[in-house]
Amino acid sequence: MSENHLTFAPADHQRLAQLLDRTSQAFVRIDPEQRIVHVNRAFEKMLGYPPGALDGMTIDSITPGIWRNSTHNAIERLQATGEPQRYEKEYTHLDGHAVPVVVIADFDRDDQEHVRGYYAFATDISERKRIEDALVASERRLRVLFEGISDAVFVHDLEGRILDVNPAASRMLGYSRDEFRQLNTRDIDAPEFAEGFEERLRTQLRLGHLWCEGRHRTRDGRILPVEINTSTVQLENRTAVLAVIRDISERKNLEETRLRFAESQQQYAQQLETKAAELARSEAHHRQLTESLLDALVVTDADARITLFNRAAEAVFGYDAQAVLGQPLELLLPKDPMGCPVSDLPQTLRESDPKVVGHTSEIQGRRQSGEPVPLEISVAVIDLESNREFVASIRDLTERHRMRAMLLQSEKLASIGLLSAGVAHEINNPLAYVANNLAVLQRDVGSLIPMVDALETAAVAPNREAQAAALHDAHRAADDLDWPYVREHLPPLIQRTREGVQRVADIVANLRGLARTGPTRFELLSLSDLIDTALEMAQSRMAHSNIEVRLDRPDLPKIPGVAAQISQVFLNFLVNAVQAIEQTKRPIDNRITIRLSEVGGFQVFEIEDNGVGIEPDALARIFDPFYTTKPVGEGTGLGLAISHGIITGHGGSIQVESRAGQGTTFRVLLPNTNPNLAA
Questions:
Q1: Which of 135, 338, 460, 623 has the fewest other C-beta atoms within 10 Å?
Q2: For residues 451 and 457, what is the distance between their CA atoms, to the nearest angstrom?
Q3: Beta strand pairing status for 26-30 and 85-92?
Q4: Does the pLDDT value for residue 62 go beyond 50?
Q5: What is the pLDDT of residues 606-615, one digit of tens each?
Q6: 335-364 exposure pattern, b = at least 16 Cβ within 10 A, e = fewer
Q7: Pairing of strands 547-552, 590-599
Q8: Averaging pLDDT over each range in 18-27, 134-143, 532-541, 644-653, which range is the top one?
Q9: Which distant-in-sequence residues (6+ apart) come within 8 Å of 293 by Cβ?
């Protein structure tokens, strides 16, 4: 008999049975046909059956179909080897739910050691399975966050060897993940920044965290200014550094030029040691990651109710996290067609609309105070086994919008400054003939007064002789005045004077409209009227350069837009066309053609000149900030960049065609409808 089998004297069998009945370990005995001969109370409680209810039932009747072969296979192995078998399976509880167990099975022998069936001990492992499932879900969630956040994340050891990076790091510096793992932090640090590695590491280890700004070198040799936020972590029983890196090139450029704006990317990585301990550590690292993000992070469930709200989100919206957890997303992002690319963002999230999910959009949020706040939002979807979550990375655009408005106003005033001499001439011309007309009026009115005085005297003369004398004086004054001439020309002279005053008023109104500042407001506008405004501003300069303007603009319906911004775009293109023609130094045959048309839901503004044109190598860069092809002193390099931003902000686009020495054509496409205009 194998020493692995339990053997007892006949007198011990009854005591053993009593002992098994009282133990908390579930026990079952079955006959060769796998019918239940005996179970203890622990087995019955585990499956929810009353005493005696399982007697005579087969093992298969309390085993889900997919697990029945596991029992059969275990018995076959037991018969083949004679050794007790340990295996996992599931039983069916009386209420129908599955009970996962670990089973140890062996032969059941009688007093003569003859096999009369089988016995098994079963251990409920439901809690272990729950922990394992939770760990898998947590790891999947953390991996999605790690891979999906927009900031670059590096994990390196204390010698600077890079252990792992997220995709954002590869996009930022140009290395693949495998290539990163062959590098040291000194390989990606700019030389002067790499020299401070040891000092930063000492500070990191002393404090447990570090924030600094540095400079990284990309694979192609470019130097990027970055913002670094690091934490000390335990990774596979060794100390490592988790670094969240944000490219702050735009922010640095904005500080110098008030144009470029910051982007950021982050990363997080952590592996767990044991399943139960790793689950707790995973949650702790998850909290650490979300709280260290520089951007606001808001996570919602499938019903768009807030489940996570980090510190950066508290700073953006002004709410305490506990006050918003469980609240609908509409609390932060209300339904507002005036500031949102879709009419109802929370509903769009529920439907996983591709216009928002997986893309970066600009929307309008609402602070706790009720104050609106412009936001940039990037939404990712996390699909877990039983539910769906939305992860929104949110950035406050208040400062960016303020700087953008300052640049816009600066470029506006620069355009007006270029035309100032012509505008002054346009004002001076009507003022000159208004002044001349007033001088004529002063002269004629001065001569008219004696005639009126004589007529008044005649009207009150006491006798015919006095009346005749007064009328004689009136006729003589009329002859001196040349009254028929004055009577014929006085009305048109006054009308021309009024026209001159109105001309000056119109020019001043156009200047005020272009220079106006304030919050943008979408309204219905006529592109033809805005073209007239731009032409009036540039009229004198075009006349001075002998430029002919040809117009082709049918009567088109009004479209939504911001009038001051579109006027600036048209004026920028018109000024550019005038300057391009002036550079040819031609005395004649200078021409600008402006066309309006409607194509496929868009109105098209097209301006064509026969100026110097643009070289092919410069054509690809004309919309870059601070890039200009004009002579020094004639261009800031911001006009086309700002125009491009304005048009794309209206949902439109700009096309350009040019041949050096022959001229340039710009086309501006603006949509007939725009969700930024309230119904």
A1: 460
A2: 10
A3: unpaired
A4: yes
A5: 999 999 988 8
A6: ebeebbbbebbbebbbeebeebbeeebbbb
A7: parallel
A8: 644-653
A9: 149, 151, 244, 266, 310, 312, 393
Distances (CA, A) of 549 to 424, 572, 592, 594, 668: 21, 16, 5, 7, 18
How far apart CA 478 and CA 427 sit, in angstroms, is: 36
Alpha carbon distances (Å) from 54 to 51, 62, 66, 108: 8, 9, 21, 18
159: nearest Cα among 239, 213, 225: 239
Backbone angles phi, psi at 510, to 5 degrees: -65, -40
- CA triple 146-148-153, angle to 5 deg: 45
Which string of DSSP letters, residue by residue, matches 509-565?
Answer: HHHHHHH--S----EEE-HHHHHHHHHHHHHHHHHHTTEEEEEE------EEE-HHH
Find the helix or strand (DSSP H, E) in which 136 lies. helix 126-148
pLDDT over 80 at 147, yes or no = no
> Is the distance from CB of 87 to CB of 64 less than 8 angstroms?
no
**Is pLDDT larger for residue 151 or for residue 183?**
183
User: How high is the pLDDT of residue 618?
Assistant: 78
Structure tokens at 448: 């008219």
| 27 SS3 class | strand
Residue listed under structure tokens 């790690």: 146
Give me the mean pLDDT over the 81-110 stretch. Answer: 90
Q: For 551-556, what is the mean pLDDT?
A: 91
> What does the chain come to in residues?
679
Residues paired with 592 in a beta bridge:
549, 609
Contact 602, 672 (CB under 8 A): yes
* Mean pLDDT calculated for residue range 110-119: 82
Q: What is the rounded CA–CA span in Å between residue 396 and residue 414? A: 29
Q: Which structure tokens are listed for 453? A: 């005085």
Q: Which two tokens stand for residue 72?
A: 């059969």
Residue 471 CA: distances (Å) to CA of 445, 458, 476 = 19, 6, 9
Q: If you average pLDDT over every residue of the chain, what do you get?
A: 78
Whether the CB-CB separation of 587 and 546 falls below 8 Å is answered with yes
pTM of the predicted model as reported, rounded to 2 decimal places = 0.35
User: How far is C-alpha 428 from the chain's CA centre?
Assistant: 49
Rounded Cα distance between 373 and 365, Å, is: 5
The rounded distance, in Å, linking the Cα atoms of 113 and 8 is: 10
C-beta separation of 264 from 279 below 8 A: no
Q: State how far the Cα of 294 lies from the Cα of 312, in Å rounded to an integer.
A: 6
User: At residue 158, does pLDDT exceed 60?
Assistant: yes
* Residue 382 burial (CB count, 10 A): 17
Kindly give, in sequence order, each residue whose CB lies less than 8 Å from that of residue 126, ignoring residues fewer than 6 positions away: 99, 100
Query: How many whole angstroms separate alpha carbon 79 and alpha carbon 64?
Result: 23
Residue 342: DSSP 8-state = S
* Element holding 469 (H helix, E strand): helix 464-481
Radius of gyration for the chain, computed over Cα atoms and rounded to the nearest angstrom = 43
Longest dimension (CA), the chain: 172
CA pair distance 412, 574, nearest whole angstrom = 13
Structure confidence at residue 557 (pLDDT): 92
How large a percentage of the chain has pLDDT more than 90? 24
Residue 377's pLDDT is 82
Structure token pair of residue 636: 């800031």
